[in-house]
Amino acid sequence: MEIRIVVDEAFHPRRFGELPTDVSELVTTRHFQKGEIINLQGEPAHHFFYVHTGHVRATIVRPDGIEKVLAFAEPGQFFSDVPFFQQINHWYTGEAVENTEVSVFSREAIKKINNVRPEFVFTLMQSMAHKVWMLSNQMMTITFDHSEVRLARILVEMLARKPEGTRILVSTHQELSALMGTSRVMVTRVLNGWRSTGIVSLRKGSIIINDFSALKRVADMGIG
């Protein structure tokens, strides 16, 4: 597999398809409205979740009040599975960014699933291993790649989660800086540079991608 494909996969969360019927029968389904908290940072991880519809934003808040966006979970993905199996507290908060439906897995449900469909546990292992793979590559890009490359990758990934042809992203510079792990000033500087070359146009609270091919070339620059 080419290194470009490997890195591209590492920055796009893996989807696992629909839950098997016999698994769905052993878990509960819950609906969350936009803005509702699904799991709270610091609370015991008695459950983990699978997204059917909608999107979930995972954020962590430092003791000084600074919030960092870690990732997004979308349909076909698990979240909060790592602290669940570690038997520790949730280390991030999961919030529904739109109306969202999830399956809720408890320890009792996992025991029953292991009896009726043991191969499903391997799917969970794949999910957690992929998160480790993504984290490793995110650390790599933070360490070695320029801010332009990191921001371009984030925007390309955000577009990948939207309907085909989407070119307007609703996001503030502050939100993007949290995703990048850098300052808002740096995000603004990069976006202003792209605006001057015609790659993007900027509006309050949104970014218009004028030249996706150019943005993708920037995102690929750090791959080597």
From TrEMBL:
InterPro entries from the UniProt entry: cNMP-bd_dom, cNMP-bd_dom_sf, Env_Response_Regulators, HTH_CRP, RmlC-like_jellyroll, WH-like_DNA-bd_sf, WH_DNA-bd_sf
Record-linked Gene3D superfamilies: Jelly Rolls (2.60.120.10), Winged helix-like DNA-binding domain superfamily/Winged helix DNA-binding domain (1.10.10.10)
The HTH crp-type domain, residue ranges: 145-213
GO molecular function, one term: DNA binding
This protein's record includes keyword Cell membrane: no
GO cellular component: cytosol
Cyclic nucleotide-binding domain mapped to chain residues: 22-113
Keywords for this protein: Activator, DNA-binding, Transcription, Transcription regulation
Keyword Transcription regulation among record annotations: yes
Pfam family for this entry, one: HTH_Crp_2
Source species, domain of life: Bacteria
Stated name of the protein: Crp/Fnr family transcriptional regulator
Lineage of the species this protein comes from: Bacteria, Bacillati, Bacillota, Bacilli, Bacillales
